Amino acid sequence: LLMERKTHVKINRKEVMLAKLRKSCSCTPQKLKNFFMDFFPVLRWLPKYRIKEYIWGDVMSGLVIGIILVPQAIAYSLLAGLKPIYSLYTSFFANIIYFLMGTSRHVSVGIFSLISLMVGQVVDRELLLAGFDLNDDVPPASGDGSLQNDNLSNTTAFNFTIVGINAECGKECYAIGIATALTFMAGVYQVLMGIFRLGFVSMYLSESVLDGFATGASLTILTAQVKYLIGIKIPRSQGHGMLVITWINIFRNISQANLCDVITSAICIVVLVTAKELGDRYKHKLKFPLPTELVVIVVATLVSHYGKLNEVYASSVSGAIPTGFIPPKVPEFNLMLRVALDALPLAIVSFVFTVSLSEMFAKKYAYTIRANQEMFAVGFCNIIPSFFHSFATSAALAKTLVKTSTGCQTQISGVISAMVVLLVLLFLAPLFYSLQKCVLACIIIVSLRGALRKFRDVPARYHVNKVDTLVWVVTMSASALVSTEIGLLVGIVFSMLCIIARTQRPRTALLGQIQDTSFYEDDLEYENLSTVPKVKIFRFEAPLYYANRNYFLKSLYRLTNLDPNLEAARRKKYEKKEKQHLKKGNHRTANGLGIGETTLQLVPKQIDFQALVVDCSSISFLDTTGVNTLKEILKDYKNLNISVLLACCNPSVIDSLKRGGYFGKDFGCMQEMLFYSIHNAVLFAKDQK
User: Fold this and answer.
1) pLDDT one-digit tens code per residue, 472-507
2) Cβ–Cβ contacts within 10 Å for residue 493, how many?
3) What is the widest separation between alpha-carbon atoms in the chain?
4) How many CB atoms lie within 10 A of CB 464?
5) Which InterPro entries does this UniProt record tie to the protein (predicted)?
6) Dist CA 214 CA 598 (whole Å)
7) Cβ-count burial of 220 within 10 angstroms (0-12 exposed, 13-18 middle, 19+ buried)?
8) Which pick of 175, 204, 368, 627 has the fewest CB atoms within 10 Å?
9) Distance of alpha carbon 555 from the chain centroid
């Protein structure tokens, strides 16, 4: 049976591109309206907002997230190496911008531990290169918390010149300059990826890579917070191997631990973990999560203030947090050049986490998002706030789960959360002056429970897929032991190598017939399969291309127990010897046989088949090498009077074979070489003489 292919109209790609270009460049009032409606999705859904149905859930979830955001923002400033005020700015602006531009109804975009860590590593590196002391822990200046008398309280300002910057700037000033330049560049990359529709980049970050990356980064975050937990002052390690070096320094200086910080940390961790476990156990009975972090921060601040823990026990505290907004400032262009490369992995990770969470919750609640618009939204959540002394943002799973569990319906909840943060920014920030840093470290460490619990899933993951588990282990190890950026790169490269390795050495099998049926399966995997006389059926479960050509041939020769090249060489050698004997007039052959018996000797005993059927159902494509390989085995087996039949080829494989001349010039023998099922090929082979 030879099925007739449809005739496809050849598309003039040049004309199609020109038509699309003309359509894109045309400007009509309706098109302009649609553009703004698409760019600001809030214009589409806000007029349809069902106040009576949605408002209570949005207000409730917004208040809860706002209450959670404040302590987390203050805590994550430790990871970013910046003052708490900048974390609050970040949380405020990200929620407002995503409300205007985001397409997800549920994700919570704002400060995220992993992104804060990546920002902090770049900030620390640049501070070291600029000559600042990362361990400068000057006692916090007292004051009324206003911007005017706290702008540069952390360090003494001095003149310096770096990459063209000649200004009077202190450590805090330079740190936020680096962070805003990094954030701006990350946002630019994300917007460019949206313009050029490069969202497919996220496909190369598999679940195993992302989980391994998050777990490895969580170990780094935990390590960085230990010194605050026990109140020791050690050098902030930079570069590769930061985790190991930090732990060595911790054990060397463990004798200097601050007893007040150790006791406070122990109490806070016990309270936080207990509250989290109880919240998880009874979450179906609770209408909203317990604001444990806020309670801990309030109580700890009161105890620290009235107990004078900083003055009496030298416990490190947050210091003055200014109120109000610092005037906007354009990020330094020269600093952008320094951090341009660092911004790329930051942009990719931020986008991938945001889009993956958006897609997950859109699927759960039966609506759709636009991944490209999400790229624009998260990009502008970085670009615009970078002018207002904010750093990079992303969607966070934990806060998003809290939003959905407290009745969130739309991004109105994000606006409510932003208002809570604004209240803190304008009035309440100075109240956190006496908050101990060890309390913030406890909040960060307890928030890592989800990522660290991935270690418990390793046996189950290994049972499901060993290769994915290996990818997870390699990515996690590289992220923790080398650096987060290198770990992400290693994970991506290693996962790709695993895919390549799978196609280079795929499963191969000889098939047997299921009794009394027209179906065939792997002879080694199933019982009671019958061998087809005089026919070998070979299956190759991967595309056939240049990288696995040799493995294809070796597997074929091994399973059929016949290498046609060796057999042809043996026959030639035998024929040469026979001719020599005949020239000498010896009518007996070298093996002692008569001439009449020579023909029988030429046919080797191990050749027990006259047809080879190649099951191509798993071969998704052929490259030039693949086509030449099939032509080669066709020729080699033909020399041994063995026919090669192809079965179950998809249309793209057939087209490749046609273009490669496998069926001859006029395709006359095609119906005798190509079959749409293995059974048809077997029946044809049985009918051959």
Assistant:
1) 999 999 999 988 888 989 999 999 999 999 889 999
2) 15
3) 120
4) 10
5) S04_transporter_CS, SLC26A/SulP_dom, SLC26A/SulP_fam, STAS_dom, STAS_dom_sf
6) 71
7) buried
8) 368
9) 34
Range with the poorest average pLDDT among 44-48, 75-79, 169-173, 521-525: 169-173
Report how far residue 375's alpha carbon sits from residue 358's, in angstroms, rounded to the nearest whole number: 11
Is the domain covering 508-569+606-687 a CATH 3.30.750.24 domain?
Answer: yes
SS3 content of the chain, % helix, strand, coil (to 5): 65, 10, 30
Where do we find the tokens 């190759």?
A: 540
Task: Name the helix (H) or strand (E) containing 495.
Answer: helix 484-504
The confidence score (pLDDT) of residue 189 equals 95
- Which stretches of 161-206 are DSSP H helices? 171-195
pLDDT at 297: 87
Q: At what angle do helices 292-307 and 51-80 cross, to 10 degrees?
A: 50
CA within 13 Å, CB half, 651: 6
460, with CB counted inside 10 A (0-12, 13-18, 19+), is exposed
Distance CA 312, CA 395 (A): 41
Compute the distance between CA of residue 36 and CA of residue 18 in angstroms, rounded to an integer: 24
116-157: pLDDT as tens digits: 999 999 998 999 888 887 764 544 444 444 444 444 434 444
Q: Is the per-residue pLDDT at 91 higher than 90?
A: yes
Contacts 24+ apart (CB under 8 A), 461-467: 461/208, 467/498, 467/502
User: Which one-letter amino acid corresponds to residue 563?
Assistant: D
Contacts 24+ apart (CB under 8 A), 49-53: 49/410, 49/412, 53/409
pLDDT tens column, 580-634: 777 776 555 545 555 445 444 444 445 888 999 999 999 999 999 999 999 999 9
Q: Quick: pLDDT tens for 225-248.
A: 899 999 998 877 777 888 899 999
- Residue 180 CA to residue 386 CA, distance in Å, equals 5
- CATH 3.30.750.24 domain span(s) along the chain: 508-569+606-687
pTM, two decimals, is 0.80
Pairing of strands 529-530, 109-110: unpaired
Of 526, 494, 490, nearest in space to 510 by CA: 526
| The predicted structure's pLDDT at residue 636 | 93
Cα separation, 264 vs 253, in Å, equals 19
Which of residues 200 and 363 earns the better pLDDT score?
A: 363
Q: Residues 81, 120: contact at Cβ < 8 Å?
A: yes
User: How large is the angle between the packed helices 333-364 and 171-195, nearest 10 degrees?
Assistant: 60
Pairwise CA distance, residues 274 & 267, whole Å: 11
CA torsion sign for 27, 28, 29, 35 is: negative
Q: If you write DSSP's letter for every residue of 418-450 in order, what string do you get?
A: HHHHHHIIIIIGGGGTT-BHHHHHHHHHHHTHH
Run of H or E residues at 113? helix 113-129
